[in-house]
Amino acid sequence: MSKEKSEEFKSENISRREFLRKTGILAGGTAVGASMLLAGCSNGAATTAADAEKWDYETDVVIIGLGGAGACAAIEAHDAGAKVLVLEKQAEDHHFPNTRMSGGVWHNPVPTGDRDARVEYVKAMMSGENIPGKLEGEQPHVSTEMAEMFADLIMENEKFLLAQDPDLDPEGMKAGGDASFPMFPKFKEAQYGRTVSTRYKEFAKAVPDLPPYKQAKVNKASGEAFFWALVEEGLKKKRPDVQILYQTPATSMIKRNGEIIGATATSKDGNEIKIKANKAVVLTAGGFEYSVPMRRAFLEGPGVKGWCFYGSPDNTGDGIEMAIQIGASLAKVAKSASRIEPAFPHGEKYEELGLKMGTMSRVSSSKNSCVVDNFGKRYTNEHIITDSTQPYRYQFYKEAVKYDMLNMDYPRTPSWAIFDETRRTTGSVVSMTNSTVGYSFLPWTKDNMDAINRGWIIKADTIEELAAKIMADSDNNGRMIAENLVKTIKNFNEYCATGKDQEFDRNPSTMGPVDKPPFYAMKHYPGGPNTKGGVDCNAKREVLDWDGKPIPRLFSAGEISSVFKFTYQAGGNITECVVCGRLAGKNAAALTAWS
């Protein structure tokens, strides 16, 4: 960071930093300060070197979290000659990180695109400061260097993935098409392209109704294929000397003289262990989707009961808390890759916390369906919720958390997908091949009847009856107005007949009438695959303190420190797992061992 930028950053942040110190939130990076920010969320204090006279393990680089970013960091650190140890919270036979449960798509810009233009396009996604009319960038202290780094390293992704497993299908990786944001600077010159897929060469022969993680390798696709290539092939098969400790969640990082020299964890048998990191720690522990205190603190609107996520329920913000404990700064923690998704009860543990488990909707913008608010009125062109050709779908949660200040109400939380028997019999109204249903966290049948019998989908013989049942639901709290819903469906059906949506100009090819009884309603909440904000980092993936200075020997990558602070093009999180994970691992391994 230049001296000029550093001074600007200090000036902008001094009041916040002093406030945090005075209120004890920083408190020298202790758990006392962290607990004031995240009451009820503590996993243990940051450990000092005096506590670490006896080491249970010694390695060069410790990786905390084995998702896509952690795997890429481990691969690069290993190939740079470092001894690597990975701490993973989940059990090996139930290792389902967000990477694995995702769609597995990523960004692969056209090689002939202009490099400087690509930098500008990336910078707009990350910071937005080069967009006319935007008052300030999301991360001006690191944005230029970050965009340059990302624009260069992203061009190596395809080669890197094929190096892990040449059995991947290169056809799915071919760059092309237009990027999501034509309003961004240098859009045409950048040739950034849309997302590309990860799959094996015989993905089309996948066994119907078999969960993705049970498919043969040659039939894998999406996040399953991406995960398999990195972890099973890239690490376990090609680099078996990388030590992976499953069911061993990290609990704190060990700091000595301002440097991170190791980590503590809870072993599989419940004992505390200490791991010495001779060179560095790389934090890739994921987001805070299932942390009640962090959701309450950071998410917009009703953060606990009014949101849902369809990734790993083991993402509880552990890494963010550990980073806070040792003095790391935070950046845009409220950012999320989200739209609206259905969510359901998931066991006593989550119900006690007020949390539901989300899954991927297939009905919010399909034919024979529309979306209404709690009062029975449509409020959007439903197609943009899922349209992969548009830039808006992973920002749609902004519409869902809209606040009615006059009535002090969130009228769209939840929203309601209304559909008919034609849509119910067409196929599953949620994704069966990835997300929480695909990985057996939530039960579902293709005819949707199991969910109807469980009460997850409301069923009625008439629209009037459906309105009454919605109104009786505790999340609607009596707000539904039957006359509104009846009129909404009548108007929508007329739009379908004429081929013109008079209210929101929905794409006619996505429209079909809601006219065949019985009728159905399914709740949708703001949410999606993951959170994106968290730990602040620079272009080297060094974790920064509140003065914008790197915390020595600590790096981070993945959704815990996502680079996409302003906006998000689908597939961005998988992309940064490779770009930033590789860089973090390489830079960690390049350090001289401490003594």
Layout of helices and strands:
Layout: H1 3-23, H2 31-37, E1 47-48, E2 57-64, H3 68-79, E3 84-87, H4 98-101, E4 106-107, H5 115-126, H6 143-153, H7 157-164, H8 187-190, E5 195-196, H9 222-237, E6 243-245, E7 250-256, E8 259-266, E9 272-283, H10 292-298, E10 308-309, H11 318-325, E11 330-331, E12 336-344, H12 347-353, E13 357-358, E14 369-372, H13 397-400, E15 415-420, H14 421-426, H15 435-438, H16 449-454, E16 458-460, H17 463-472, H18 482-498, E17 519-531, E18 534-535, E19 542-544, E20 550-556, H19 572-589
Parallel strand pairs: 1-7, 2-3, 2-9, 3-6, 9-20, 10-17
Antiparallel strand pairs: 4-5, 7-8, 8-9, 11-18, 12-13, 12-17, 14-15, 15-17, 16-17, 19-20
Helix pairs in contact: 3-9, 3-19, 5-6, 7-9, 17-18
Describe the structure in your own words:
The protein is α/β, with parallel strands linked by helices and 595 residues long. It folds into 2 domains: 399 residues, FAD/NAD(P)-binding domain (3-Layer(bba) Sandwich), CATH 3.50.50.60; 193 residues, Succinate dehydrogenase/fumarate reductase flavoprotein, catalytic domain (Flavocytochrome C3, Chain A, domain 1, Alpha-Beta Complex). The chain is 31% helix and 17% strand. The protein contains 19 helices and 20 strands. Strands 1, 2, 3, 6, 7, 8, 9, 19 and 20 form a 9-stranded mixed beta sheet that branches. Strands 10, 12, 13, 14, 15, 16 and 17 form a 7-stranded mixed beta sheet that branches. Strands 4-5 form a two-stranded antiparallel ribbon. α3 runs parallel beside α9, α5 packs across α6 and α7 crosses α9. The longest helix has 21 residues. The protein is globular and about 75 Å long.
